[in-house]
From TrEMBL:
GO terms for molecular function: L-rhamnose mutarotase activity. This is L-rhamnose mutarotase. The lineage of its organism: Bacteria, Pseudomonadati, Bacteroidota, Flavobacteriia, Flavobacteriales. One of its GO terms (cellular component) is cytoplasm. It comes from Algibacter luteus. Its EC number is 5.1.3.32. It comes from the Bacteria.
Length: 104
């Protein structure tokens, strides 16, 4: 099992919309993530900077990052594009984070 972390950026004032959309995560997206080895997925918000910190526990190397060609994922990106920083293809701007401490 591998742990992955990355950061993304939420647009100012979009915390409630972001939380609501994730509270109502599409069942097909949740199934896709689980079927592709993502066993845990948490996202934390630093409200001062609007930075989102994501953590995934995955079997396999890429976690959700390996699903960029999936139609469900692309549809989710389009759904989220109005409230966060995105690339030209609507994928979230995502920066991998280096693990500097782990306590099992």
């Amino acid at each position: 099992m591998e742990r992955l972390a990355f950061k993304m950026k939420l647009n100012k004032g979009q915390k409630e919309a972001y939380k609501k959309r994730h509270d109502e995560l599409w069942p097909e997206l949740k199934k896709l993530l689980k079927d592709n080895g993502v066993s845990e997925y948490s996202i934390f918000l630093d409200e001062e900077t609007s930075t989102l910190f994501a953590f995934q526990k995955v079997s396999g190397a890429g976690g959700s990052q390996d699903l960029s060609n999936n139609d469900i994922v692309k549809k989710w990106w389009d759904f989220m594009a109005d409230i966060m920083e995105v690339n030209p293809d609507n994928s979230p701007v995502s920066i991998p984070l280096e693990e500097v401490f782990y306590m099992p």
